[in-house]
Amino acid sequence: MNRSRIILVVSIAVTFVLTAAAFHAGTPGTSRVGSVTPTGHMLEPRSGHAATLLPDGKVLVVGGMRRNQDFYKSAELYDPETGKFQPSGEMSERRVSPVAVLLRSGKVLIAGGWIGHGCTNSAEMYDPATGKFAAIGSKMTAVRGDARGTLLPDGDVLITGGSDHDAPGGIASAEIFHASTMTFERVDPMHFARVAHTATLLRDGRVLIVGGRGDKVNAIAEIYDPKTHRFSDTGLLNTPRYKHTAGLLPDGRVLIAGGSDERDWHGNLNSAEIYDPKNGNFTAASPLNDARFKLPEEAVQLTSGRLLVAGGSKEVEVFDSASGKFLVGSGQISDAWHFMSETRLKDGSVLLAGGYPNNDQATAETWIYRP
Asked: For the residues of 200-212, what is the DSSP string, one character each?
């Protein structure tokens, strides 16, 4: 073989390798969009629990249930340094789907939740310094299960909707928890009853309320303005949904993804859309790779600005706003866990914990997603 032919063959081979590598790097499911691996087990199997990142980098996991009507008072702490969980006090009540919000003080507000056949309006505070819970003398202005709590720029907490009974529909009432006085104050209600909705803090300090279920699954979004303490309608979803997820994008828009319609298990959605606060409109986005519902209410924003969506499927997906597409991470969780938690850690990785599959038994398994 002469020299020119050898050079041609080598050139073709190099081109093939580079092309294959480029194709592989752009294929969903590669390490380019991160990977998920198993880590330690929680002390108890949990779904419908709350998980909150504390100032010291540990994660507080509270409440939830082992199975229907088998609810927890207990709490535990995840230590990312050891990858292990340890017990950390008990709440005054057994709670599933409570509000859990880290306050500026470093303490965690725990409010409401399902306590059995019904919901509660009680609230308590977790103090990381003591590892204990203390009941708050003031109670919420309404009983609420699966409500949404949003920390406002002034340090108070907006609490919206939820359910006050075991039927599917939600309530429209809303209130403010004043952190300085440890009291709750009713504000004007939302325009629509909602449970399993999302509440996303916008860059300007307002809160976007999307989806949820009242008499039916809602397509009309609302904005809460802390200056007026009132809600106003804003935009119409392309697809009514609840039990979905939402996340703030780097440019200030909001991604809405997944969820379900009134058919629940038979109405899972893979559609996604983006809300633009500049014009108050929703526009369709590229769909998820898997239809999924019963998701963490907040899609975690990674250090790259991408949004992680986990739960309701074995796959984890990352929304890349640059390409406008969902990419699949490598590795899988062990089942399509529903009502799991998703907590970004200080090193940028994400703790995925618990949930239940298409039966009544929760898991204690946890995973770490690394971008």
From this structure: EE-TTS-EEEE--
Amino acid of residue 179? A
Q: Which residues contact 153 (CB under 8 A, 6 or more apart)?
A: 205, 226
∠ CA 352-223-122, nearest 5°, is 60
pLDDT digits 0-9 by tens, 102-147: 999 999 999 999 998 899 999 999 999 999 999 999 999 999 999 9
3-state secondary structure of 13: helix
Closest of 188, 199, 187, 180 to residue 138, by C-alpha: 180
**CA atoms of 119 and 96, how far apart (whole Å):** 9
CA dist 341 → 195, 235, 337, 338, 355 (Å) = 18, 29, 10, 9, 7
Distance CA 259, CA 244 (A): 4
Beta bridge partners of 126: 108, 133
Amino acid identity, residue 121?
N
Count CA atoms closer than 13 A to 308's CA, side-chain side. 30
In this predicted model, what pLDDT tens digit does every residue of 60-90 receive, in sequence order? 999 999 999 899 999 999 999 999 999 999 9
d(CA 291, CA 313): 8
Sorted by sequence, the CB contacts under 8 Å of residue 293 that are 6+ apart come out as 243, 244, 258, 259, 260, 264, 267, 268, 269, 312, 338
- CA dihedral for 116, 120, 124, 128, sign (positive or negative): positive
Spatial neighbors of 304 by CB under 8 A, at least 6 apart, are: 371
Task: Please provide the distance, in angstroms rounded to a whole number, between the alpha carbons at the two ends of the chain.
Answer: 47
Q: What b/e string do you get for 88-114 counting C-beta neighbours within 10 Å, with b at 16 or more?
A: bbebebbbbbbbbbbbeeebbbbbbbb
Rounded CA-CA distance 116/193 in Å is 22
Q: Which residues touch 155 (CB under 8 Å, ≥6 apart)? A: 103, 104, 179, 180
Convert the pLDDT of each residue in 254-312 to its tens digit.
999 999 999 999 999 999 999 999 999 999 999 999 999 999 999 999 999 999 999 99
Q: Which amino acid is at 22?
A: A
DSSP helix/strand/coil, 21 = helix
| Token digits of residue 337 | 């866990």
Six-digit token pair at 229? Answer: 């303490």
